[in-house]
Amino acid sequence: MKDHIEHLRAQSLLLGATQPESYGSAGTVTGRSSQRARREMEQFLEEKGCIPGDLLSSMEGLRKEIGSLERCREALATTTTHAGVESVVAAFEDARSYTTRQLHEFKAQIQRESDATEELARIHCQENSIDLRARRSGCLMLMHELRKLMGLLYGEVEGFRHDLREHRKNQLAIALPHASDKEIEDALDRGVGLQQVLNKRSSAGRVEKLQDLQDQRSDIMKLERSVAEVQEMMSTLALLIDRQGGLLDNIEFDVVNAKYTADKTYRTLVDTRRNQRRAQLWMLGCGFCCFIIIAIIVLLLVLLFGRRL
What we know:
single chain, 87% helix, disordered N terminus, SNAP receptor activity, SNARE, Syntaxin, Syntaxin/epimorphin_CS, SNARE binding
């Protein structure tokens, strides 16, 4: 009766731990309840001796080790030098190799536990059926945890490789600004790194640098000639400005003199008009006087001749 109760307890814990967390119907557990049920199942199987306690603790420590690989991705995102990138990659590869070895050891240990359980089932099939089922459940749970750890490791490795490829792609894009995305992708597929590009550019860059120096020297000489020509032109321009200054002074004097002459001419014209009017009046007065005198003389002559007749 006691073995039957323990068998029912193991089945209920196993069902509670293996239910997907997305289930939300009545009678199922989700979220923290599922994690609590899994811990209870692990504790029960460990108490029954179906799961080695050191293996569970080692798998939990390996889970934290896999989670620590995220720091390598963070370090890669903040590293700019080639040596820094290589050191981050080396550290990540060391951690990945260690984690992979641990996973293989866990798998071999779980396989040994499974083989021992099957051997025990073959020998004691009827006597220990409840314990055998519990041991099988423990092995299945361990294999499930191992697959989860392998999935976590695969995700971290793929994420790191993607980040490393993007980092190298950005470096190549900076080193080769005129290259297209397809050319950069092809270079990454061929394994061309930033250091190779820099070495190639440095070997070919000396000739280009010498040519650039010669071009700069010729440009400097042209610039010197241009500066001399500009200086001569500025001297000529300064002379012209001085001459134009003298011309402007003469023009200003002529303008002032013309203004004075215009004022004097205007006054002379006004005086001339006034004198002309006076002369006309004098001429008119003189003509009138002459006319009166001539009329008097004619009248006297007529009177004189009239008396004689």
